Amino acid sequence: MSTVTVWNEFRHEREDDDAAAVYPDGIHATIADALADDHEVRTATLDEPEHGLSDDVLAETDVLCWWGHVAHDEVSDAVVDRVHERVLDGMGLVVLHSGHFAKIFRRLMGTECDLQWREDGETERLWVVDPGHPIADGVGESIELARTEMYGEPFDVPEPDRLVFVSWFAGGEVFRSGCCYRRGKGHIFYFRPGHETYPIYHEPEVQQVLRNAVSWAAPVTKSVTEG
After folding, report:
1. DSSP codes, 171-202
2. Is the CB of residue 92 less than 8 Å from the CB of residue 58?
3. Which of 7, 97, 117, 215 is the most buried (most CB within 10 A)?
């Protein structure tokens, strides 16, 4: 069992009625609940002292899950430095949806992490393109989400070490939606699905992927073939 910290800005859910209706206790609470049976979970939010990510908290964290959207610039550079150091030292990092623009993800990728997007609420199908990867365990050949925000290529990130999911959208776009990286001793997984007003983190298959991703990213000895 790993110790997981689920981090969230927790802005939309307090300021937007539609977001509050879907995630009344915050996106972080929904994700934490999904992980709680398999891991020891705590939560942290942007407006807490040190964003809830003190040295002590990070020292006890095996895997950090990160959800951000509208307040990336408000994240302290000192906290980013602290998280960056922990990832290089072996802490896992699972970056979700619009967290592609988070300071910590951009620093670890070394790119702008830009992409195409369209807010349309149409269908997304995530195809499992690496069914042997541990993050795909228990998932069928695809996951269908009825209403999502479209993210499209080009996605300005380095070539993933392993690519687990590729998304197709109703508009015809495709996107690398499940990207695995290693930086220093730390394992990083970027997972595209998620939105503040769509109940994506309530979906059982999405929750399964999150549980798998946390287990994969935890700092344990892994074979080279796991990626």
Report:
1. TS-EEEEEEEEEETTEEEEEE----SSS-GGG
2. no
3. 7
